[in-house]
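User: My collaborator sent over this chain with a note saying "see what the structure looks like." That's all I know about it. Can you take a look?
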Amino acid sequence: MVETQNSQPQDQNPSDDQPKRKRMHWCRDMRFPGDIISLPAQVRRSLRRGHYEHGEAEAALKLIRKGDVVLELGAGIGFMSTLISTQTRAQAVHSFEANPGLIDYIREVHRLNRAKKAHLHHAVLGDRDGMATFYCREDILSSSLDPTDGGADTTPAQVPMRDANAVFAEIKPTVLVCDIEGAEVDLLPKLNLSGLRALLIELHPQWIGSKGIKDIFQLLHEQGLVFFPKFSSGKVAVFRSNW
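Assistant: Without extra context I'll predict from the sequence alone. Here is the result:
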């Protein structure tokens, strides 16, 4: 669906100095601008059809309860943080996104949708405070911390890194939402997840392999988070501590 802003009555012609009309992609009653960054065609199509991040969205709507504090790793285009802020009873959602090319877009998505409970942090989480190298790609949503997953279009950028456990101690999340393009296999072992009620993660077997999947399941089980198949689907896995 396309929303047109600054439109003129049919019997008038817009003057040259008036703002251009903006394309808006709608999904689950949320608006996503089409004129700030170049969204991949697959993303635009998925938004229009209402299928974008379907598994994660359905799981979040079922999983998140009144008063939950959600920490999101990998904000993408701001879809999940906006959904959680506007369509669940979460107290707050703190989203961490490393990609410098997405920060202004996410802020605009939050503003357009009045996602007042969403808090955006431009940083990657790691084992200390400092800086990290992030690899930006032509397909903006394929950018990652992995220098090998790309090609000639890969451009490195230095981005802020926050001490992950210090962030957890400060925010005190009850739910973790994680979609970080395969980096989950390196980051999760560094985290103290004992305070979580639940974790929602999109796994990336194409990058971490069967061993990576096995290691994540074992790690979460050891930290008291057990796979919850009822809310899981495909590569989207939900883990809970209290069932």
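A starting point for your reply to your collaborator: Residues 205-222 form the longest helix (18 residues).
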